[in-house]
Write a structure and sequence with these properties.
Blueprint (H helix, E strand, L loop, with lengths): L17 E4 L9 E5 L2 E5 L3 E3 L1 E5 L9 E4 L5 E3 L4 E4 L3 E9 L2 E10 L7 E4 L3 E5 L3 E3 L2 E4 L8 E5 L5 E4 L2 E4 L3 E9 L5 E9 L5 E4 L7 E4 L3 E9 L8 E5 L5 E7 L2 E6 L5 E9 L4 E10 L5 E2 L5 E2 L4 E5 L7 E8 L2 E4 L2 E4 L5 E11 L2 E12 L3 E4 L11 E2 L5 E6 L4 E6 L4 E7 L12 E2 L6 E4 L3 E5 L5 E6 L15 E2 L5 E6 L3 E6 L5 E6 L5 E6 L3 E6 L8 E7 L2 E2 L3 E3 L13 E2 L5 E5 L4 E6 L4 E7 L5 E6 L4 E6 L5 E5 L8 E2 L17 E2 L5 E6 L6 E7 L6 E7 L9 E6 L2 E7 L4 E7 L19 H5 L4
């Protein structure tokens, strides 16, 4: 199989230095000195120091800095020293046990003031309002920056420490003067009565605020314009038996809620001659919460149930809920959030004749799980699912292991170790939807495991010389799932009893590189590379435990990919084989012949996916765009839907695309060499399939290779190097499309394994 190119980058921070003798220390450093060795600064000045080491080629990360008297001078970890007060101090740089010093003298600052200026020269205030003026004393290093403030008419405006307050209508000037030198500047102030236009509550909410019976809450008014002089507020409660409000000054009202009472109440504030007003609804709750949230964590994309507490609040009626752009009605509703973080569930209801809108915060976890796998790379195989879609299985390369992933808990379950010390690539796997058994292989053996990870049987492959005893796309199943079809690397294609592992029948093939699909009444189509490029397409039937005659289509045969399995149309009349050179081979299954080969990309084709809208989606290993072509007519060159090429290859290596019942397409991509990865959805709502980011993954590593699949309402992706890997699961509120396409329920295009997962 294709092997990824792994790259590592190291960064070493070097500091330029001069030397001072000392004993040899860390990293082979024999001496260290500070540049400059002596320095004089004025109070308030800053200067950067550096170090030099002997030998010059010695490697180190950083020097540690210290001051002998931080009341005179301080130095930060980057070597920048600031003079604080008059005196002398020693600055020391250390690398391990080796040190160097700088003698610093701080002199008194005697710089005189040369001028003063106000940033604001004209100011309009409403009566009773205040605003602060900003002053600039020059030069920046002036020793005495003290200033005094005064007003030419305190009956119009007063000033204190630069804060100007409007007292009465009129004009005056605010004067600032420096103590050193007597320099001054002025600001002209106009004070007038400004009518209030609007008011709002700075700590209010568009929803009813949930309050405790017997508790209190203080509302604060904000004014438009902020310069208004009409700042007196009157307050009113819609039901004083539930809540009373008292003015608390400065536009505030203190609300007290009655003991032992529940229900909605509205507080209203009014200001100015225009009677500008604002209202805030409250819901006084009793000992029980009005909305019952699901237990445990809520995960983005995973459905969770919310219920109104009718037993505690029986007077509520006409309940409706809104979340994430969707609205449902009833006492109990189920939602799945599209995003993680802090979300809000909105409940609208009637209490008697009073409408109430409650906002319920719902903290949502972004990821069902992010599982690190040290020393085991989840690559070269698709995750596959059990029939209930509560478990997913995947194989790692490097250390060849089969893992169970519990999608109910978000944790790894059992692990089956297939490694024999020389395998590096993972192999394709298949799950039997009837028994739940899993079929997998290492370099020389095919295994069958029970759902609890126990080995049921094994089949040795005598001359298996590949990284996997299974050639090409791996195992497939008969219609009744009682037989497993295995393309083996000893150049045999065999039918095996699914329960016992006994070989029922088989025939020889010319290569260890083969793709196949099961269609119809256990008919099989195979594509392989053969000498001379003829007869690579074969057809065979399996009836009563035996293979029928093998027939070959004597036409040029491209080299099939060893990564992605073929796709079969739902009407069982057409199969498509992705090939190594970017060709998509179309096979007429009824006529048993190749009907076309369309050039779709310049490298491996990956993960064929058929949507309900009669589109085929696929990825290209080289530069990794996601593409689509229409199946309602002759195949045409594909249209690229994602621009995430970045001039690199393998960005969707050993991975796939998958669609849901609405025709939305999902994929996972590493967007750059820094390990930034994203789950995407191509939304089918408007037929244009625009990429939409579902979730950014935690940054992983520099290797862009990974894997992906969709099932059980989960997107499973991951990858990495043999040293650092992640398996990530993001929930989505979607059902896998019930089409006979691509690597779905198993790693091959057998129709039964795809259909059962969509039932």
């Amino acid at each position: 199989m294709k092997k990824g190119l792994f790259a590592a980058f190291a960064a070493i921070i070097l500091l330029t230095v001069s030397c001072q003798p000392a004993a040899e220390g860390e990293a082979g450093i024999r001496a260290l000195s500070v540049d400059p060795a002596e320095l004089t600064l004025v109070e308030g000045q800053m200067e950067s120091l550096s170090v030099a080491v002997v030998p010059e080629a010695a490697h180190y990360l950083f020097a540690t800095w210290s001051s002998s008297d931080e009341s005179i001078a301080k130095i930060n970890k980057k070597g920048t020293v600031k003079a604080l007060s008059e005196g002398s101090v020693t600055i020391t740089a250390s690398i391990g046990e080796v040190t160097g010093t700088c003698r610093l003298t701080v002199t008194r600052n005697l710089t005189p003031v040369s001028g003063v200026s106000l940033i604001t020269r004209e100011l309009t205030l409403g009566r009773g309002n205040s605003e602060q003026l900003t002053v600039r004393v020059e030069p920046e290093m002036a020793a005495d920056k003290r200033v005094t403030w005064s007003s030419t008419d305190p009956s119009v405006a007063s000033v204190s420490d630069g804060w100007v307050s409007g007292v009465g209508a009129g004009t005056c000037e605010i004067v600032v003067r420096t103590v050193d030198g007597g320099f001054e500047d002025r600001c002209r102030v106009l004070v007038q009565d400004i009518a209030v236009e609007e008011i709002a509550f700075s700590n209010g909410s568009p929803n009813a605020i949930i309050a405790e019976a017997g508790g209190s809450f203080t509302l604060s008014v904000s004014y438009t314009p902020v310069t208004t002089s009409e700042r007196e507020v009157s307050w009113q409660s819609s039901d004083e038996a539930l809540a009373t409000v008292t003015p608390a000054g400065d536009g505030q009202g203190e609300i007290r809620f009655a003991e032992g009472r529940t229900g909605p109440v509205t507080i209203r504030a009014t200001a100015g001659q225009a009677h500008a007003s604002a209202s805030q609804a409250f819901f006084i709750k009793g000992p029980a919460d009005p909305v019952l949230l699901p237990e445990g964590s809520v995960y983005a994309g995973r459905r969770a149930t919310y219920r109104f507490n009718t037993a505690a609040y029986p007077e509520a009626r006409d309940l409706s809920w809104s979340a994430d752009g969707r609205t449902l009605s009833g006492e109990e509703v189920t939602f799945a959030w599209d995003k993680g973080g802090d979300n809000e569930l909105i409940l609208n209801a009637l209490f008697g004749l009073t409408p109430i809108r409650l906002g319920v915060p719902v903290p949502t976890e972004e990821w069902l799980c992010d599982i690190p796998l040290d020393g085991a790379n989840p690559r070269n195989t698709y995750p596959v699912f059990n029939h209930a879609q509560t478990r997913a299985y995947f194989v790692t390369r490097g250390a060849r292991r089969l893992y169970e992933l519990n999608l109910e808990t978000g944790r790894l379950g059992w692990m089956f170790d297939m490694n024999q010390g020389k395998n590096d690539n993972g192999g394709d796997i298949c799950v039997n939807p009837h028994s739940g058994d899993i079929y997998c292989s290492n370099q020389t053996t095919v295994f069958c495991l029970t759902p609890d990870g126990t080995k049921r049987w094994e089949l040795p492959v005598p001359t298996g010389g590949s990284a996997s005893a299974l050639a090409g796309c791996g195992p497939g199943l008969s219609n009744d799932c009682s037989v497993v079809f295995l393309p083996l690397t000893d150049k045999r294609f065999v039918a095996v009893d699914a329960a016992s592992g006994a070989i029922l029948d088989g025939f020889d093939v010319e290569t260890t590189h083969i793709q196949f699909a099961v269609y119809g009444a256990d008919d099989i189509v195979l594509l392989s590379t053969v000498t001379g490029g003829k007869g690579g397409l074969k057809f065979v039937s399996f009836r009563d435990g035996k293979f029928g005659p093998v027939t070959a289509e004597d036409s040029p045969s491209p080299d099939p990919t060893d990564i992605t399995a073929p796709a079969v149309s739902r009407d069982q009349r057409t199969a498509w084989f992705p090939c190594n050179d970017g060709l998509l081979v179309t096979v007429d299954l009824a006529a048993r012949k190749v009907t076309g080969a369309t050039q779709l990309a310049d490298g491996y084709l990956q993960g064929l996916c058929l949507t309900p809208g009669d589109w085929m989606f696929f990825a290209s290993q080289t530069k990794a765009p996601v593409n689509r072509i229409s199946l309602s007519g002759p195949l045409q060159p594909s249209s690229v839907l994602t621009p995430y090429t970045n001039g690199n290859s393998n960005y969707l290596n050993f991975t796939t695309v998958a669609c849901d019942t609405d025709g939305n397409v999902y994929f996972f991509i590493k967007e750059d060499g820094a390990g930034n990865s994203v789950f995407y959805r191509l939304g089918a709502a408007d037929g244009r399939y625009r990429p939409e980011e579902i979730a950014s993954t935690p940054k992983q590593n520099n290797d862009p290779q990974g894997f992906f699949n969709f099932g059980g309402g989960c997107l499973i992706g991951g990858g990495g190097t043999n040293a650092k890997n992640h398996v990530l699961v993001r929930c989505i509120d979607a059902v896998r499309a019930p089409l006979w396409s691509g690597p779905g329920g198993d790693a091959c295009a057998t129709k039964n394994a795809n259909l059962v997962y969509a039932e």
